[in-house]
């Protein structure tokens, strides 16, 4: 199965490069949008949101890849009902290409495990880093949008992924503790001199007013005390079907596509495509170069 997936992706690269077997990146390619999805605390539904957002974007014709950057707690594969034995450090092995460590999910979305490999990049020498970065750059040809699913909280490892991105989606809930932790995330981001475009999603709301009030509160406080502009992408309803979908290992948008929460995520995907980052999209290479600079 892994060989079939790798062969399929190789054909995609070959067709996009116009040269059989070529790993050369097209000089006129468009950089992928690299979007970090993060949260101030755990338990707000960040990873479920990331996976379902990827599916919603795929329905809109986008080629989407998820990088699971949650050290030790990554469960993108569990939610998708797929598994992969490889992570980014396998690219140092001469027998592994980028396509070998990518797994294909439903609706053509793809994901790869960063795992501890992402955090060990800082320990590699320059020649090893060059080899990995050269292979990773191929992602700009394979995806229009790359979603980085981080761990929760404001640890240095998490903040590195937030600061390195061109765009950041902060996922929180209306609970006061979650809003407080989301603000702590934003405040820490400012202290790191981040320049990304920040967007906000309020998850697990019971009614629209609850989501709007929570978003307005965080946005106004960030602007008043930090001078930072955050835009709202919307909210997602609390939904018991989400628990059922996790148990089925089938994402909500596939298991229960007609629910109100699924429609919320689809609306957010539409808004995300309407709001292209105002900053220049630096693509995969720009993201990883900046990430490595922060790590070192």
Automatic annotation (TrEMBL):
Q: Which InterPro entries match?
A: CobQ/CobB/MinD/ParA_Nub-bd_dom, FlhG, MinD_FleN, P-loop_NTPase, ParA/MinD_ATPase
**Pfam families, alphabetized:** CbiA
Q: Does the keyword Disulfide bond apply?
A: no
GO CC term, one of those recorded: cytosol
The protein's UniProt keywords, in alphabetical order, are:
ATP-binding, Nucleotide-binding
Keyword flag ATP-binding: yes
Provide a GO biological process annotation: negative regulation of cell division
Q: Name one GO molecular function term.
A: ATP hydrolysis activity
Using the record's annotation, list all stretches that form the CobQ/CobB/MinD/ParA nucleotide binding domain. 35-251
List where Basic and acidic residues composition bias occurs: 1-10
- Annotated region Disordered: where? 1-23
Region forming the signal peptide: none
- Its recorded name reads Cobyrinic acid ac-diamide synthase
| Source organism of the structure | Pelosinus fermentans B4
- What's the source species' lineage? Bacteria, Bacillati, Bacillota, Negativicutes, Selenomonadales
């Amino acid at each position: 199965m892994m060989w079939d997936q790798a062969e399929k992706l190789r054909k995609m690269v070959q067709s996009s490069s116009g040269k059989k077997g070529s790993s050369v990146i097209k000089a006129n390619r468009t950089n992928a949008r690299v979007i970090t999805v993060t949260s101030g605390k755990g338990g707000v539904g960040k990873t479920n949101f990331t996976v379902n957002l990827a599916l919603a974007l795929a329905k809109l014709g986008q080629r989407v890849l998820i990088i699971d950057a949650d050290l030790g707690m990554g469960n993108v594969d569990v939610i998708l009902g797929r598994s992969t034995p490889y992570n980014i450090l396998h690219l140092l092995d001469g027998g592994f290409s980028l396509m070998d460590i990518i797994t294909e999910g439903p609706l053509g979305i793809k994901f790869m495990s960063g795992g501890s490999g992402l955090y060990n990049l800082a320990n590699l020498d320059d020649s090893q880093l060059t080899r990995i970065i050269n292979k990773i750059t191929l992602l700009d040809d394979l995806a229009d949008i790359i979603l980085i699913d981080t761990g929760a909280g404001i640890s240095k490892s998490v903040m590195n992924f937030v600061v390195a991105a061109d765009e950041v989606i902060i996922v929180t809930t209306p609970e006061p503790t979650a809003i407080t932790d989301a603000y702590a995330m934003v405040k820490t981001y400012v202290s790191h001199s981040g320049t990304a475009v920040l967007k906000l999603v309020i998850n697990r709301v019971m009614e629209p007013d609850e989501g709007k009030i929570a978003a307005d509160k965080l946005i106004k406080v960030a602007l008043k005390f930090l001078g930072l502009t955050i835009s709202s992408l919307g909210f997602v309803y609390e939904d018991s079907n989400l628990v059922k979908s996790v148990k089925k290992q089938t994402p909500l948008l596939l298991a229960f596509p007609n629910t109100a929460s699924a429609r919320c995520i689809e609306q957010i995907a539409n808004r995300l495509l309407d709001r292209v980052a105002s900053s220049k999209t630096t693509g995969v290479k720009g993201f990883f170069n900046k990430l490595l600079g922060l790590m070192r």
